[in-house]
Backbone:
């Protein structure tokens, strides 16, 4: 039963990275172009924005309900990255939703800058968190993580940057798929240039990981640690090829997979642990230990599993209703 | 400064900001449902315009509800990891249910509602707003279940120093839940009603266009506020019974409180088990505000033949009342939360054991950072709200037909 909940937890975080990922990607791309370009990007995001971010909220909810011990140790053990990512999420949430409420061009440009900064912080923070999990934490037997300096490694920085590059490529691919056909070609070229950057960033992070003693000591399943980064790079190459052949749908699916894979990577390489201790092997926290006790999981199961189809159904309804490329008749609000 | 104090300060600041926004969300969405349903049923364009105008304010307000809510959610793990370790099995369940059952759908629905004007059939569009409202109430329901459990832990047993869930039903029948939930919902309606009446009063005093529109929303707001204030008072006084029984130390000395303190001293060792006086002070002022706002009833007869508008001074009074419900909700929460000190979970988990073992410097940095960030965002948001409220109902961006020239910027005024 713990495994099912662990998979669900991973599913929600991965979905958040895929869906929130293109929000942040589009957010980063607000750094370029004039008001009309930025308006087009935000209109493309439009109806999906609120429904994307909520995967993060649900992820933390499941984390708290089904893995209470993990929640406390994970979040407080990674204090600075989590706070950084959180600040980023807040800036994006507020920036996107409020940027069009003032009417002056200067105010809107100011909010757009807030969104750019927020998107960068969020992507970097979540990437750093995933990297941090892979390099283990100084977790003590009484369940607390000592200090925060354990985070400051080249590997964690590299995973943060890799996430940033992934998100930018994913966002550009999303816009290629969603903007009016006339504007899509230029974005396709941009995405085509960003994907190789992401490949380089991912490969560099992987190399740093392989060189790091801490990461090698933390990995529990070496096969997964090799296979999944390869799958990630493959997904990016598929995206590159699809962009070159003007198949934005395929490319978007591929960059989406590239954003989901890091979560699978962390989950699978650490299994059966979730938090590996670098100071005391006995303190390592396994999935089973991190999970809530039986009655709580059963209760949550009875209440939420029947609801999942409804949750997914309404999200799917949103995608369906607002599918296709934006055009002059697309509602403008953000 | 120690980590505990900083963590408490941070919780108090961020939750207070969160609540100032969600209380409006909860109140306004109820009124919006009424207005859009009236539009659907009568087809009268007046209701559509009302829905768009108030909907615009609602959506702007909502932004900070989300932003601060996300901080709240993470804060449990960041600053209160002891809470999840010792009582997470029980306390986490309602929070998890809330996020999945309520927030997830609420935001999905709201996104479709904002962008669905002119695209979805009117019935579907209305159903989405109903969905938003119902899930908002569901979220208040579950968060109050969680909070009530901290006030009075029930339905659990402690094994190996950790609380395990034994009886979920007990969480729902918790004596600290029912009346408090009613009180909070009524307070939200009261706040929404007063807000609507006050903004309308401003327009009527300034004699801006759209007299008929703001006349309607003034009446709607005042009637709602009057009904709600009575409910607030009823549910408020009804809370004293259960509180006296399960939290005798909350509002000052009594034989039951002394007995409980003696018991705790025996079990947990000597300590200061009486909450700060701040709790009772907050309570007193809130009740004062509750009675003051009860005077809304006196304005209702003046609705006859629009005397309320012709006399003008009642409009001024309505505007002056606007800050009161906001002050009251914060005071009420201070009474409830400070009154349960020194416990996070009353009689079960002392606050000092729940706090994360984070370096005080880090905690201070995050306290200052989040307070400044959320405070600045809150002020910005209220400024935008005030501007949009003042701009009137001529052409809100919400629900503007697609293809109409957007208000995409005219050249910015030159500052240099
Ligand atoms: C518009 C806001 C508002 C107004 C006018 C009032 N209250 Fe209130 N009160 C709240 C908004 C509120 C609140 C913020 O919603 C609280 C905080 C926690 C809760 O359950 O409701 C609260 C808490 C709260 C508590 C503390 C519950 C606890 O400690 O567990 C009591 C005893 C009362 N109220 C009683 C009253 C009475 C007797 C009132 C007036 C006659 C009154 N309140 C007016
Ligand atoms: C309903 C959901 C809520 C939950 C689950 C909750 C939970 C908590 C927790 C865990 C703490 C920190 C531990 C402690 O100091 O006891 C706390 C403190 C506090 N909360 Fe809440 N809270 C809720 C709502 C609110 C709201 C809406 C307010 C609005 C003002 C509020 C005001 C405070 C204050 C002032 C403190 C500090 C008390 C003190 O440390 O002296 N709470 N609450
Ligand atoms: C301290 C505990 C609390 C936590 C952890 C919390 C968490 C959250 C979160 C994460 C959101 C954003 C959801 C989204 O993305 O849509 C949110 C919004 C909301 N919260 Fe809270 N909340 C707390 C206290 C409260 C209280 C006491 C109430 C009311 C009784 C409340 C009512 C709402 C409502 C109605 C919303 C949705 C509307 C909006 O975003 O403005 N919350 N909360």
Residues:
């Amino acid at each position: 039963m713990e495994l099912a909940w662990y998979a669900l937890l991973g599913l929600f975080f991965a979905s958040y990275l895929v869906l929130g990922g293109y929000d942040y990607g589009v957010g980063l791309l607000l750094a370029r172009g004039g008001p009309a370009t930025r308006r087009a990007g935000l209109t493309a995001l439009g109806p999906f924005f609120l429904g994307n971010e909520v995967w993060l909220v649900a992820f933390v909810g499941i984390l708290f309900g089904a893995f209470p011990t993990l929640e406390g140790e994970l979040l407080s053990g990674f204090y600075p990255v989590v706070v950084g990512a959180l600040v980023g999420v807040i800036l994006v949430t507020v920036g996107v939703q409020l940027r069009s409420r003032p009417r002056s061009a200067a105010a809107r440009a100011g909010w757009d800058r807030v969104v750019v900064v927020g998107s960068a912080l969020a992507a970097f923070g979540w990437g750093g968190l995933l990297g941090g999990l892979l390099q283990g934490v100084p977790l003590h037997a009484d369940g607390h993580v000592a200090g925060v300096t354990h985070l400051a490694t080249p590997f964690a920085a590299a995973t943060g940057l890799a996430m940033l590059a992934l998100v930018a490529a994913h966002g550009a691919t999303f816009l290629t798929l969603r903007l009016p056909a006339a504007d899509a070609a230029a974005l396709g070229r941009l995405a085509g240039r960003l994907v190789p950057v992401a490949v380089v960033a991912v490969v560099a992070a992987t190399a740093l990981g392989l060189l790091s003693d801490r990461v090698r000591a933390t990995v529990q399943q070496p096969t997964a640690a090799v296979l999944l980064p390869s799958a990630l790079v493959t997904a990016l190459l598929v995206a590159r090829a699809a962009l070159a052949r003007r198949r934005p749908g395929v490319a978007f699916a591929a960059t989406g997979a590239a954003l989901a894979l890091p979560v699978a990577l962390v989950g699978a390489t650490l299994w059966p642990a979730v938090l590996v201790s670098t100071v005391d092997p006995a303190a390592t926290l396994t999935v089973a230990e991190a999970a809530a006790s039986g009655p709580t999981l059963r209760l949550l199961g009875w209440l939420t599993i029947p609801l999942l189809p409804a949750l997914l159904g309404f999200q799917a309804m949103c995608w369906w209703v607002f599918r296709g490329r934006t055009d002059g008749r697309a509602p403008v609000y953000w | 400064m120690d980590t505990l104090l900083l963590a408490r300060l941070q919780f108090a600041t961020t939750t207070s900001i969160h609540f100032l926004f969600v209380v409006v969300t909860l109140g306004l969405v109820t009124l919006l449902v009424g207005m859009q349903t009236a539009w659907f049923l009568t087809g009268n364009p007046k209701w559509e315009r009302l829905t768009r105008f108030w909907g615009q304010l609602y959506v702007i307000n909502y932004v900070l509800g989300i932003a601060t809510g996300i901080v709240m959610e993470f804060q449990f793990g960041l600053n209160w990891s002891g809470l999840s370790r010792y009582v997470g099995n029980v306390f986490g369940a309602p929070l998890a249910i809330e996020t999945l059952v309520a927030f997830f759908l609420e935001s999905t629905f709201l996104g479709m509602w904002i962008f669905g004007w002119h695209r979805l059939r009117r019935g579907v569009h209305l159903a989405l707003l109903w969905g938003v409202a119902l899930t908002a109430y569901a979220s208040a329901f579950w968060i109050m279940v969680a909070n009530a459990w901290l006030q009075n832990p029930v339905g659990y047993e402690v094994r190996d120093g950790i609380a395990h869930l034994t009886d979920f039903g007990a969480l729902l029948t918790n004596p600290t839940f029912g009346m408090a939930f009613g009180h909070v919902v009524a307070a939200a309606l009261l706040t929404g009603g007063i807000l609507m009446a006050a903004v309308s009063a401003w327009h009527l005093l300034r004699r801006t266009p759209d007299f008929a529109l703001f006349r309607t929303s003034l009446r709607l707001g005042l009637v709602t506020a009057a009904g709600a204030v009575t409910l607030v008072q009823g549910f408020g006084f009804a809370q004293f019974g259960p509180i006296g029984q399960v939290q005798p130390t909350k509002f000052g000395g009594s034989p039951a409180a002394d007995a409980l303190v003696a018991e705790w001293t025996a079990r947990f060792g000597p300590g200061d088990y009486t909450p700060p006086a701040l709790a009772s002070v907050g309570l007193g002022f809130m009740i004062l505000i509750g009675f003051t706002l009860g005077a809304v009833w006196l304005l209702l007869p003046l609705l006859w033949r629009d005397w309320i508008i012709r006399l003008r001074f009642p409009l001024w009074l309505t505007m002056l009342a606007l800050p009161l419900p906001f002050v009251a909700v914060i005071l009420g929460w201070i009474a409830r939360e400070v009154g349960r000190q020194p416990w996070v979970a009353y009689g079960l988990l002392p606050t000092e054991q729940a706090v994360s073992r984070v370096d005080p410097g880090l905690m201070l940095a995050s306290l200052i950072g989040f307070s400044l960030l959320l405070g600045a965002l809150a002020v910005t948001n209220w400024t935008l709200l005030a501007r949009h409220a003042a701009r009137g109902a001529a052409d809100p961006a919400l629900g503007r037909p697609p293809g109409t020239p957007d208000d995409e910027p005219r050249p910015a005024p030159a500052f240099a």
